[in-house]
């Protein structure tokens, strides 16, 4: 898709997020339907955009007034100047559409504005999510849908018929017997690959609260790619399984369900004790055994760091690979001086960052290659 088209799509998705923030229940599917509808009409025609949004984003009559007020704030040129000071709403200037299929100040200004949105998009990939305002977060959340998810795989124990591979002597002999013992073509068998299990353990304590929302959205994105291969837990003062909540297709609904499930959100943290509970209940069972385990935490431990180290070592013994993501890992001047981090580093296979969209892409790449 051309850069200008992608920028225009981003403007429309940001507007859908603004309608949701105003109180209309706009799901991810409705947002995509809105973009598809506008693509069939004309993004430069204000009327086309209005009616496409009204038909796709509004689910009930009471949504219409809220939708119209939000649309006027976003797509009225006079008000676009005021909106430009509100973070991601600066993209409104590019979306100030008129009825004559022309940009208010000519197509050149429109193209410049669209290029500015593309630059904003690239900047967001590198921004620390803890520093984003609400509008920028809404824009970033739509970019999660573009993150590539490739699940790690392993060889299956079952064998399947194939055109190449090892000779299947049983099938070969049976085929020959059917033909009276006459020699015939050789039969082969192959070993298929199947997705490997993945377990996400996300720290939701107070020190991780600026990142917890985005990290759970990332886990939701991975889980949607393989609902039966991914398990998600939160770590705080206790262990909470949120897999069922994150199976909801819409990310906002899934996080709302997860938030109601987690009793220790933004509280303290006892990583060693919580990981011991995970090992005792899940580590020796199907979830962690031969799985890729992704732990996302800054490593601040109020309990015994030695206990934390022992539990990560224990987990490493049963898992295929242990990946530890720390939001501070790639920040300038960071050194792993916390006692908790120093205790676990000898027992993890990969120590990566986790504070921006770019670092999330790198984390998914490490997970895929595990």
What secondary-structure arrangement, pairings included, does this model have?
Elements: H1 3-21, H2 28-40, H3 46-57, H4 63-75, H5 77-83, H6 107-126, H7 134-143, E1 153-155, E2 160-162, E3 166-167, H8 169-178, E4 188-190, E5 193-195, E6 198-203, H9 209-225, E7 230-235, E8 239-241, H10 243-246, H11 251-261, H12 271-283, E9 292-296, H13 305-318, E10 321-326, H14 339-344, E11 350-353, H15 357-368
Parallel strand pairs: 6-7, 6-9, 9-10, 10-11
Antiparallel strand pairs: 1-5, 2-4, 3-4, 7-8
Give a structural overview:
- This protein is of the alpha/beta class.
- It has 3 domains: 3-145, no CATH class; 157-191, no CATH class; 196-368, Rossmann fold (3-Layer(aba) Sandwich).
- The protein is built from 15 helices and 11 strands.
- The chain has helices at 3-21, 28-40, 46-57, 63-75, 77-83, 107-126, 134-143, 169-178, 209-225, 243-246, 251-261, 271-283, 305-318, 339-344, 357-368; strands spanning 153-155, 160-162, 166-167, 188-190, 193-195, 198-203, 230-235, 239-241, 292-296, 321-326, 350-353.
- The strands form 3 sheets. The chain has a 6-stranded mixed sheet with strand order 8-7-6-9-10-11, with helices on both faces. The chain has a 3-stranded antiparallel sheet with strand order 2-4-3.
- Helix 1 packs across helix 6, helix 1 (3-21) crosses helix 7 and helix 2 packs antiparallel against helix 3 (46-57).
- The longest helix has 20 residues, at 107-126.
- The radius of gyration is 25 Å and the shape is flat.
- It starts with a helix and ends with a helix.
